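for the writeup, i need someone to sanity check this before i put it in the appendix. the sequnce is what the collaborator sent (i think, or maybe the updated version? ugh). structure was predicted straight from it, no edits. if anything looks off just tell me and ill rerun, i have time this weekend
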Amino acid sequence: MFLFALCIQMSKDQSLSTLQSIICYAIMVIPHVLMHFTYRLLI
């Protein structure tokens, strides 16, 4: 959630465009997915 809050803070009070929203969600999701794959590879 920290990364999403950072994305929102960087956008200030302007509404996010579709591309900006996609980038913000990607910034949140990609580290989460990589964390799970790295954990599975270690088991």
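The helical segments are 2-11, 18-42. The longest helix spans residues 18-42.
thx in advance!!
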